[in-house]
């Protein structure tokens, strides 16, 4: 626990002065304990500060107060000298692959883990989270730069395009239920019971979302939030066999595998009509549907998609 600063020590005296009940400087019962709880310190620490202040209050209406300085007398670097002065060199000699935990580092350099933790709190080391990066070749890097350069507009002092004419589509998996869930209950309420045959076979469905940059729609005099829509890849099929939950032939909603024909059908029946319905009418630019390089995605020259996009002009 860090020691109290000079300002905190003076604040302790101020709090205690508010709890003086009579001259010369008598505190009410429990005053030191109250201040100790406020500053998170032991009552003996607060008592020593009050004793060092040596407050004197005149009896004539308590208008004259005398108090000694209670600022910390420890200046500069104080405390015992560090036992391990060569820790940076010893830690640097340990390969980064072995520096995953403080316990492993302490074992590698031969000091207690608790001691190394103290040095870590003093700022000897910093924690860094390492994430896997894509391994790019020179050809990949050049392709990325060329793709980014397509959005540079030479006619506007080489500024990047605002991308107001782009609609970004992407897929994401969602599970039917979560393995862990949090719920707040009142006293006496019974927690909801959740069960499944196996947590490894929870139904998951792929969704497709389309978004664009938000902007002001002058035609409707309202804010266009850029949310085109979200759709799920499912189909309604009759149950092939009877079970204890439903007889055979009952219509069920089931997820489908996303293939190129399924994805193409989603574009033609949902995404493109939604863009035409929600897109600001005052925009005269050609709309571009931006997708990643997933295998089910349709090529840019697909005749059915081009015809659906240009059907209304």
TrEMBL record:
Residues 4-55 form the DUF7769 domain. InterPro entries: DUF7769, RNaseH_sf. One of its GO terms (molecular function) is nucleic acid binding. PANTHER family: OS01G0541250 PROTEIN. This is DUF7769 domain-containing protein. It comes from Aphanomyces astaci.
